[in-house]
Amino acid sequence: MKFETITYSVDAGVARLVLNRPERLNSFTDAMHEEVRQALTALEADPTARVLVLSGAGRGFCAGQDLNDRSVASDASSDAAPDLGASVEKNYKPLVLRLQNLRMPTVCAVNGVAAGAGASLALACDIVVAAKSASFLQAFGKIGLIPDTGGTWFLPQRVGMARAMGLALLAEKLPAEQAAAWGLIWACVEDDALPATVDRIATQFAAAPTKALVRTRQAMRASVNNDLETQLDLERDMMRELGRSHDYREGVAAFMAKRAPQFKGE
Ligand code: T3D
To answer: Are residues 175 and 214 in the same domain?
Structure first.
């Protein structure tokens, strides 16, 4: 597919969506949101895709909303004042929900700074790997906003309330190494090792029992609101479903035969 602000491709089960406005640190315009929506629609309809890798072109991952993409009136009562709630409703909220509900795992390669909604976007992915020179910045506090795109949900859950509060209120860059040490992301690797590390994970996921991975994600996320008994019930129901799946039969058969499994993702 041909796009102006992103690139999108699928090869050997791996879908790659690259935010591609490097001169603006891949910040989001309305046009970019629209292209991301189109790419996700293509991805959802593609039976060959088994994993999504999200990354940014150039030196940054994503600087959140492009602050040039709208006129911000100095007078809040002016008709020209943008409705950021409408922007969140149309763009950022559906983006996070689509990623969270995707029928395949998602991997985010954070190659450089991830700021504002760009930081939240990374956290909306299942596995986040960052280059050592990358950083995470809750830039919202510097421009009079709150962490959106799920920021106020992801941050306290991943790093605890004290650190989440510090990150959001102080709006200081969190280096990737510290982000990994705090449990905000899965791993921080040397800059030149990022592509190979992400490729290794993507290749593994492209051959994995996809439905089981997606159910795992759903169960993990549901645990936030469930008591133990409800969670045990959920696990029972998912185990019942997966126990009837092709990939479970194949996984056990391959184990018994001491061969590599050929999962179909179903
Ligand atoms: O719809 C809605 O508005 C609601 C949703 C809001 C969600 C949000 O994401 S709000 C938060 C928006 N993002 C920010 O506030 C981050 C702004 N950017 C920065 O703070 C810094 O650029 C960074 C810390 C990310 C990186 O700093 P640095 O020094 O490495 O790079 P730089 O020189 O600041 O940026 C390079 C260029 O990208 C520069 O352009 P220039 O001067 O070379 O022509 C800069 O203006 C541009 N750029 C970076 N971020 C944005 C941007 N242009 C527009 N919008 C940006 N967000």
So the answer is: no
